[in-house]
Write a structure and sequence with these properties.
The protein has one domain: TIM Barrel, CATH 3.20.20. The chain has 13 helices and 12 strands.
């Protein structure tokens, strides 16, 4: 980890540069890569890059409020840290370090079930809102045990990832014979993950009271079915382009899912969101929360918990300026009419939001 003071980071791409220095090649490729052709990684950025902002002028924007509601709590931005596996690859404290950074700023952390040091320690490390995310690798009793532990630890909601029935072929890792330790090899665990179905979701809602989020919804049809099953939040995601190859970009899918949900549940989204303007675009398209993944992993690798907090401060500065220049004083005023289609100005890739980034290769 770098000894560079977090206040020395002034722009977001500096976290990426420092993370590249601090991480070995295997972990770097794990972080930035996707599945097979990595089309999903690029499409996530392409869709965001194809949206322009439509500003209104001569509005009093001398007082701007960037805060937002999350499960009845006020958070500093409509942003959360997405569940990412193996955060201990980026900083020794793993999810606990991420929780501390998110809590110090005032946004939620989604804690992955495959991140150390475990759900209780992660909950203890952060003072902000928190959600526990589970990969289902067992029967109903396995799920119930994790729900009990999450409730006891004070998590505000429970998230089940539903787009990992089969693991993808991540060729960056495979070509180097690199395999993360938490990926299951036990055939029984692999089968249980593949067997997850809508009946399991209905069982969860009948048995548990904690709000349920389904992560990995990518069609209006599945969004409609999720709402019918009583799900509290539909989480739009293509797993950062890391599961099914050639998916649609998350921001492209988002409006049709918002329309299908029709206010009957909240809608969250992730997938390539990297700048303050991206957050505004997500809210304009109807999301109730935008989650960032790779962005905070760079900050973790660059400067630990303080790096995450500083990254969020810079993101907030970008949001604050952009809201004012749009002619609004808060996210409640951001509407669909604030965005419109426009041609992208560069080829999309994992770092196309950072044109000043100076790496040997964007990949």
């Amino acid at each position: 980890m770098s000894n560079e003071p977090p206040t020395d980071f002034q722009v977001l791409h500096e976290f990426i540069s420092k993370a590249r220095i601090n991480l070995n090649q295997n972990i770097w490729d794990y972080l930035i890569g996707g599945t097979e052709t990595e089309t999903g990684v690029k499409r996530n950025r392409l869709v965001l890059d194809q949206l322009a902002l439509r500003p209104r002028v001569l509005v009093d924007v001398s007082a701007i409020d960037c805060s937002w509601d999350f499960l009845g709590k006020r958070i500093r931005l409509p942003v959360a840290l997405a569940p990412v596996g193996s955060l201990e690859s980026f900083t020794p404290g793993g999810g606990a370090t991420a929780a501390a950074g998110a809590g110090a700023f005032g946004v939620p952390l989604f804690a992955s079930s495959v991140t150390q040091p475990g759900l209780e320690a992660i909950a203890d490390a952060g003072k902000g809102p928190k959600v526990f995310q589970l990969y289902v690798r067992g029967d109903g009793g396995f799920v119930d045990d994790h729900v009990r532990r999450a409730v006891d630890a004070g998590y505000d909601a429970f998230c089940i990832t539903v787009d990992t029935a089969l693991y993808s072929r991540r060729e960056r890792d495979m070509a180097k014979r690199f395999r993360k330790s938490w990926r299951p090899v036990d055939p029984a665990l692999i089968r249980s993950q593949a067997a997850l179905n809508w009946g399991d979701i209905e069982r969860f809602k009948a048995k548990h009271r904690i709000p349920l989020i389904l992560k990995g919804i990518a069609t209006a049809e599945d969004a409609e079915r999720a709402v019918g099953a009583g799900v509290d939040v539909v989480y739009v995601s293509n797993h950062g382009g890391r599961q099914l190859d050639h998916p649609r970009g998350s921001a492209e899918v988002l409006p049709e899912i918002v329309a299908a949900v029709a206010g009957r549940a909240k809608v969250y989204v992730d997938g390539g969101f990297s700048r303050g303007t991206d957050i505004i675009k997500g809210i304009a398209l109807g999301a109730d929360l935008v989650l960032v993944g790779r962005l905070y992993c760079y900050a973790l690798a660059a400067a630990g918990a303080a790096g995450v907090t500083r990254m969020l401060e810079i993101l907030e500065e970008e949001v604050h300026q952009s809201l004012g220049l749009l002619g609004v004083t808060g996210f409640a005023q951001v509407k669909r009419g604030h965005v419109c289609p426009a041609p992208p100005v560069c080829l999309p890739h994992v770092h196309s939001a950072f044109p000043l980034l100076n790496l040997d290769s964007p990949y």
